[in-house]
Specification:
Shape: elongated
Order of helices and strands: HHHHH
Oligomer: single chain
Distance between the termini: 33 Å
Radius of gyration: 18 Å
Largest sheet: none
Helix content: over 70%
Number of helices: 5
Strand content: under 5%
């Protein structure tokens, strides 16, 4: 009977941890997406100062969140995101393209990490 209780506690703990991980990844994805969109808006307005401020905010957010992401996610994808984030504010003329690429990589990471039937099979 004691083993049954241990199994039940273990399953509840695993469910809580998985739910917390999914909420954390969703939150990071949402916050990063908002900051990337703000940087793109600054670019369309030709506000270089605001663009640099927003890219600094993206890097700060990444630095504050990436330790836990590395604990729960595949490192290869996160390394690619980290390199792209740390290379901001990019070269002259490539900013929009690079921000779109970062957004696409972030979306791919989010889609690969979220719980869905296709990810489980």
């Amino acid at each position: 009977m004691k083993r049954l209780w241990f199994a039940i506690v273990f399953l509840v703990l695993a469910a809580v941890l998985c739910t917390g991980e999914q909420m954390y990844i969703c939150d990071v994805y949402t916050q990063m997406n908002e900051k990337i969109n703000a940087a793109e808006t600054a670019l369309t307005k030709n506000d270089k100062k605001e663009y640099i401020k927003k890219t600094d905010e993206i890097a700060e957010l990444w630095d504050s969140k990436n330790d836990l992401l590395y604990a729960v996610s595949e490192h290869g994808v996160l390394d690619t995101l980290a390199v792209q984030i740390r290379s901001m504010p990019y070269g002259e003329g490539d900013e929009t393209k690079e921000l779109h690429s970062l957004k696409a990589q972030l979306f791919a990471y989010y889609e690969n990490e979220r719980i869905s039937l296709s990810n489980l099979l």
